[in-house]
Amino acid sequence: MDTDAFRKHLEESKSGFAAWGKYVTEKINEGASQKLGEEGIAMCFKIPSIPRLKKIDSALGKIGRKGYDNPIAQMTDLVGVRYVVLLSEQIDFVCDILKSEPTWLAEVSKDYQQEIETNPKIFDYQSQHFEVRPKNNFEINGILITTDMCCEVQIRTLLQHAYAELVHDSIYKPVGQVPYKAERQVAKSMALMETTDELFCSTMKLLTDVNKPRNQLYEDLTSIYREKIGGHHLRPDVKTSYAVLDEFRELFKDGLSAEIGRYIEGKQYIAKKVVDRAKTNLFFAQPIISFVYWAVDEIDPDELKRRWPLPGYLRDIEVIFSDLDRKPSY
What we know:
By secondary structure, the chain is α+β, with helices and mostly antiparallel strands. It contains 14 helices and eight strands.
């Protein structure tokens, strides 16, 4: 295909590539949202993922540099989107979403883990790349998407992204001479980043392991709220719930979730009061509320009030004391 024909193809297909890139991005975002929720998404994805079209002049220039004879098939980055995650272990999470989507074929075009295994002594530019093509022709808002359209999806960590932004264009796509010393410095920086990522991953695993009982109890309390009180009243603020659970960790024990569930069932007036207040009071819309009622009946009122970790909700704990006919001495 000559340059003029390829330019014409790009101009005619521009809206299709844009629609395809948007479709791929939305599908990945939907899969991530279902598994992680809004707060999980914020923790995982550190830079907005926005599909971008390759500029026509840039695509034409690439033909000459690469010697493509069939650029429609060979140029896989006419539209692309990049996902930047916090840690390397989260790369697999996005990969799994890509591989499980039934409407497209996702082929790995660059696997940094495999490259590390093949060349363990080399510290190099890292990023996971996929070529994503639709399994069948279809339309999006009247725009035809064809099976030869490829969306390149890059997945990298925040550290890898910083590395690529700083040195990739200068070292791996040089516009001039690159001295040996510069290459050596870059290799050393990549080695340092790999080590840093490993330390971060290990740290996060330690935090996850030590907080597993708390996190599981939070999930159980969310289920208790939905089943015993009413899920449509929930407006979870994880930090609020974690603050309470962290303060009263000594109350954790086997079977606690079931005990709290029975407690709420045995005092049915609690659910009614929570529902009435949750409409206007955010604290009563938290999964932690059933734990708080239970704890007020378990702990000396003076101690609970003294240790209460949420000063903005001090009046609300007083209301719960009143509901249960419990009263601190001060």
